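Lecture 7 notes: from sequence to structure.
We start with the chain below.
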Amino acid sequence: MLPTKQTERAAVNATRAFLEAHECVVQEVDTGNDYGKDLLVDLTEDLEITGESIAIQVKGGSSFCRSGKWGIPAKSTDLRLWLESSIPIFGMVHDPATGNLHWMNLSAYVREEMRALYEFGRASKQVNQSANDLPGHFVIFPEHQALSHDSWPRFRHAARAYLERFAGHSLLNLMDSDPDKQESAVADCFALGRGDARALLLVRQLIERLSGPSLHTAIQVLSHCIPHPDIFWHRGNWIPQHVKESVSSSFSWNPHEIYHMIQEVNAIDEPGKWGRGTLGQSLLLMLLADGDISIKIPDAVRIACAADETEVAALMLYVYQYQRTSDSVPGKDVLDELKKIAADNPKIVNDRYMHDLISAVADNGWVDIF
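Predicted structure tokens for the same chain:
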């Protein structure tokens, strides 16, 4: 059944009544000026306006439920509006039979998920389609997102968290002294970066400013931009190809970055931290994405030795020999190069990792770091 003026009016009334019951300030947009925003909403705290504003597109009627799933049909113009709106747009669909209100952050969907979900679907079905802007489609709302008095705090938190990301404030936390805020900002960059490569490029450029859990999260996030055999790809972590290419092309590491990342991962107190499916593996794959990594490692070794991090220096040389043998350099030549680097950095000569590396390359010609 197609929506009627009555069902549309009932949907707007129900949405407005719910929001006002939860102390929001609601301004209804004149239907004569309908441009995809039915309500303008100011969130409040203790009856005070917080300055946090969202727009809501309201729909109502059983026609917005397809195969048991609620949602909104969107044309290309709708998608563009949700993408380019100066304030976030949320969608709400009113079920006249039950009175339930189902919701979704439409701006977040377009900015952070839509392209990734589209490409994930193509990859899963191996469909060869153009990568042009998405055509209109039925946008399905998450099943668990129905508004009620009990779920209102979750909606308000989701709106405020997105407003912070939307305004760019959360990105500033990449430079915060609070490690929890830093780590949260990196996670926000992953969400934003699925639609805009610049968010992930910002993480990459600040890699030396991150440490501990925030750096660990950054490595995991950035490793999604390169081929990775041990990432289980799904709708929630798929990154569009054009974003991957833009970010991975920036993986030209300088010696200080190489030292910093290896030192931080090596400091993790966990067994097998360099094995398959670990943070160490993700870092190694990122380093090897730099075709010139073997040229830079000798300088990184000197930096590590100057800091008395001989184990870190030796670990770098595992990467060095792996890349050199991958470049078809004979094992004997690689062994000579390792011995020369060790002679230039005598602190690592007696390191156990270095001793094991020299022995393995002498016996086998190379060492598989994976």
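Points to note: The mean pLDDT is 90. Residues 55 and 89 are 5 Å apart (CA to CA).
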